[in-house]
Structures are given as C-alpha cells and as structure tokens.
Amino acid sequence: MGTISLAQVDPRVASFLEKPRQMLINGKWVDAVSGKTFPTYDPSTGEVLATVAEGDRADIDLAVKAARKAFEGKWRKMSPSERGKLIWKLGDLIDAHVEEFAYLESLDNGKPLTIARAADVPLAAELFRYMAGWATKLEGNTIPLSVPYTPSAKYLSYTLREPVGVVGQIIPWNFPLLMAAWKLGPALATGCTVVLKPAEQTPLSALKLGELILEAGFPEGVVNIVPGYGETAGAALAAHMDVDKIAFTGSTEVGRLIVNAATGNLKRVSLELGGKSPNVVFKDADLDKAIPGAASAIFFNHGQCCCAGSRLYVEKSVFDQVVEGVADYAKKIKVGPGLDSATEMGPLVSLEQQNRVCSYLESGAAQGAKAAAGGHKVSGKGYFVEPTVLVDTRADMKVVQEEIFGPVVVAMPFSDPAELVPRANDNVYGLAAGIWTRDISKAHRMADQIAAGTVWINCYNIFDAALPFGGYKQSGWGREMGHEVLNNYTQTKAVCARI
Ligand code: ADP
After folding, report:
1. If you take atom 11 of ligand 1, which residue's CA is the nearest one?
2. DSSP symbols for 273-297
3. How far is residue 167's CA from residue 194's CA, in Å, rounded to a whole number?
4. Residue 250 burial (CB count, 10 A)
5. Which of 168, 380, 423, 466 is spaced 20 to 30 Å from 478 by Cα?
6. b/e per residue, 11-44, with b = 16+ CB within 10 A?
7. Which of 100, 105, 272, 403 is catalytic?
C-alpha cells in the first residue's frame, strides 16, 4: 500500500487496496508461481496504490489448464439458461457494487469518480445483462440440400453454433472494467472459458470483478484472471498452444505481435486497435450542439479512447467560430485528481503516456502547429496534460496522422465537401467518425462514404451493448458487442444425415 490517504475512499475499497491482490485461477485466489508482485500506481500522484501478483508463463499455463478442464466439464454441461442466469447475476452484482468499482477505476486509471460511476460501471453491468439473453438464442439453421451426384437421396442437414473453446483475453487500461465486460460477456454467453489478462497499469477492477464471479456461482476455472505485464503474461497467453482464440484490445503495434504469436496453433484472433477518427462539422450544423460535441468527442476520458474524435474537420465559413468554441471549452475543463468531485478531467494513466503525449505536442510545435488551447503538460505531481487544440496543421504532420491517445485534437478547415471524404479517409485507421449537420441526406451520404466501423451523426461516443463496435482497416478484426460479437466466440458445425 502506498501513501494515498485511505480516509478519502470508501472503506470497502480501502481494505481491498491494503492487501496484496492475488490472481484467480481455478476458482481460487493464489500468488504467482514465482512469488513476484508488481505495483500499480495512482496516476494523480505517481504513488503506489496497491501491489498485485505478477503472472507469467507458469501462471498462464495453470490458468489455461483450469479453463480447459472447465470447458470440457461443468461449464459445457450447464444448460444455456443456467449460463444466462449466472451472467445476468454478475450484471446485478456489479450494480450492487457501483461505489467500489467507481473508486477503484478512478484511483487506478485516473478518470473522474463521477464518470466511472455514471458510465463505466453501469455500462459494464448492462453488457452482462444484454449478453445473458444471448446464451439461449445461439441457433443454427436447417439447410435443404440438392446434391447432384445423389439425385434421389434425402438429407436432413443442420448447423450447430458451438463455442470456440478456451479464450485468452488481453485488455487495455483506458476502461478497465468495461473492457473486461465487453470481452467476458460474449465469451460466457457462448459457453467459452476464459483466461483474462488485465493491463498492468489497471489490474484492480478486474480482480474485484473476479470476486463477484465467484460470488455469482460460476464453476471453477470458467474465468481465470492473471494480472501481469504484456511482454511476459500477455505474450505467453497469445502464444499458448492450448488457447483456441485470443481477443485483444490495445495498440495496433501490439495487435501485430498478437497476430504473429497466434500463428503457432493458428488460434482465432479478434482485435480492437487504434484510431485517428475524423469528426466533421458542416456549416449547416447546430453549432450549439456541435461545438461541445466536438470537444467531448476528444476530451472524454482524457482522449484515451481508441475512437476519440481527434481529427476535427470544420467547414471554412464556421472554422474560426468552432475552433474558438472548442478551445474555450478546453480551457474551462477542470483538470485534477479523479476523486475530487469538481474534476472534469483526470491525469493520463501513466508517466509513459504523459511523456508520449507530450512528445507529440513537441513534434506538432516543431512542425509548425499552433496551440489554440493547452499544448503542455501540467507541472507538479501526477501525469496531467492540458486539454489541447492544435491549428495550422498539415496532413503530413505526425500529430495529424498518428494516434496520440491523449487530450489533443487537430482542427482543420475544408471548403469543398467533395474533397472532404478522401481527407477523412486518408489514414491507416478506420474505427469511428462523427458528422455534424442538419442536412439528413448529406449525413447519410457521408456515413456511406466514410471507411469506419462506427459513424455517429450529431452525437459522439454513444455506446450500447446492442450496437456493434470495431474497426475497418488497421483498427481491427471483428466486432465487439451486439450479436455480431457472438461470431468471434462461436464456430459452426454442419451436420448432414441421410434419411
Ligand atoms: P498501451 O501501449 O496503450 O499500453 P498496449 O497495446 O501496450 O497498450 O497494451 C494493451 C494490453 O496488451 C495490455 O494488457 C498489455 O499488457 C498487453 N500487451 C502488451 N504487449 C504485449 C505483448 N507483446 N503480447 C501480449 N500482450 C501484450
């Protein structure tokens, strides 16, 4: 335990932080085989928040064995309805522990407590309830055959949707609990078993979730949670020969490593990767909504969203007005520790991220971009960066091309809507896009032309358990949420009987 004042936090959270946290393998809380632990930090102070068992290859091996045994045993025998009830119960248990999760998320990740309480935690609970319903609805088809070389034969043919098996899930630090829910919900609904590796920066809420998984009554080994570093525990999981599928959310760079690691046993891979999403404001937009909309598209979660609206394209005649509005919004954001009820934006998650974002700010300045707001880190304790709006950019600048993953938007004017689509699509990523206009035909025409997995019209960052989310181009493979995600976790068996 570090030096944060536990008097500030909910007493249940204080006692959770006081003890070194163990990992969940085969229904039991255990230390790492190596006995090692690692610290997780409070990003608003840089001080140690808690210590956590450090998983590595040996722990991943044990977790995979437990997941295999559960897959072939109790979990497989359970009826879909029983499975669904457990998943629903987990959602309700999350709701019953909103405060603890909100505090853990705020302390470990840095996000405002108010946001964790209003968004991260309830969305996670809802995801489980949405997925609970799918457990009983994974149907195949009956298929009429016309086999030319057996003209008189009759067949009964049907398909079964079966779970892919043991799944490794590697998640990032930006929405620690919610990403665990996005991954676990569909895996459990389809009857897979899981080894989950939370991000080393933010392992605490996943471990708290592990307690509720046991309390809900999931059989041992169905969900195993192994905290640890990416290059060790993560890499061992991605390469494991007895893991049937890996689901990853994180950087595109690590996504490539995951794909390579998966080649050993050709495990299935789904990826949710980076983004550099265009957000387009037309002159006919309702600017009273578009301006705060464009600001929150980038500044929500401190810009640490893979779908952040980080390239703002504004029609020339309203460019100055929109940039001024977004810059004003940025300047007024109250930056501070997540637990402070006045805070609207917390610190970035780590010193590494603060340095990374600041190096982009320096690169932008060196290449000639100007800051209409922000532009620097906040000096003093903690990993704070000013909400930043950059103008005078060119398409070839690093700040325009690359994902910054921080509170930094580049604003660029356009005059001819026809040249806009190629500019918006001029990026290796294709995760999301925003369009602000009152012209519904224009909005839907653009939605058709933008190469992105999600297009928001007159809104941004709207998520729902029923709405599929995922990337075009180098933003990923497969979709999360909605019924589409079930494809990631099932495989089809065709059964053909001569009758
Ligand atoms: P970021 O750079 O934003 O921290 P990463 O893509 O590195 O994002 O991290 C996302 C997740 O991937 C984390 O859980 C991390 O531990 C894990 N990870 C990082 N490197 C590897 C790797 N080589 N193999 C498997 N997982 C990894």
Report:
1. 172
2. -----EEEE-TTS-HHHHHHHHHHH
3. 5
4. 23
5. 423
6. eebbebbeeebbbbbbbeebebbeebbbebbbbb
7. 272
Task: State pLDDT tens for residues 355-414.
Answer: 999 999 999 999 999 999 999 999 999 999 999 999 999 999 999 999 999 999 999 999
What whole-number distance in Å separates Cα of residue 342 and Cα of residue 334?
7
Residue 2: the pLDDT is 39
Determine if the pTM surpasses 0.90: yes
Give the C-alpha separation, 99 to 177, whole Å.
13
162 has which bridge partners?
491
Paired strand residues for 223? 194
Exactly one of 192, 305, 306, 307 is catalytic; name it: 306
Q: What is the pLDDT of residue 253?
A: 96
* 307 noted as active-site residue: no
Ligand 1 pocket, 170 CB below 6 A?
yes
The residue assigned the tokens 């610290």 is 39
pLDDT per residue over 158-184, tens digit each? 999 999 999 999 999 999 999 999 999
Q: Please indicate whether residue 349, judged by its CB atom, sits closer than 6 Å to ligand 1.
A: no
What is residue 3's predicted lDDT score, i.e. its pLDDT?
42
- On whether the CB atoms of residues 191 and 76 are closer than 8 A, the answer is yes
Ligand 1 within 6 A of CB of 408: no
Residue where the block lists tokens 């998640």? 171
200 lines ligand 1 (CB under 6 A): yes
Q: Please work out whether the CB of residue 112 comes within 6 Å of at least one atom of ligand 1.
A: no
Cβ-Cβ contacts under 8 Å for 205 (sequence gap 6 or more): 101, 104, 105, 108, 176, 177, 180, 198
State the amino acid at position 262 in one-letter form.
A
The answer to whether 269 and 477 have CB atoms below 8 angstroms apart is yes
Closest ligand 1 atom to Cα of 249: 10
Pick the atom of ligand 1 nearest to 198's CA.
14
- Residue 245 amino acid letter: K
The pLDDT assigned to 1 comes to 34
CB under 8 Å to 337, separation ≥6 — which residues?
A: 44, 45, 110, 343, 346, 347, 382
Residues of the chain with pLDDT under 70: 1-7
The reply to whether 306 belongs to the active site is yes
Helices (H), 235-386: 235-239, 252-261, 287-299, 316-332, 351-366
Which atom number of ligand 1 is nearest to the Cα of residue 200? 16
- Locate the ligand 1 atom nearest the alpha carbon of residue 197 and give its number: 14
Q: Is the CB of 206 under 6 A from ligand 1?
A: no
Cα separation, 123 vs 117, in Å, equals: 10
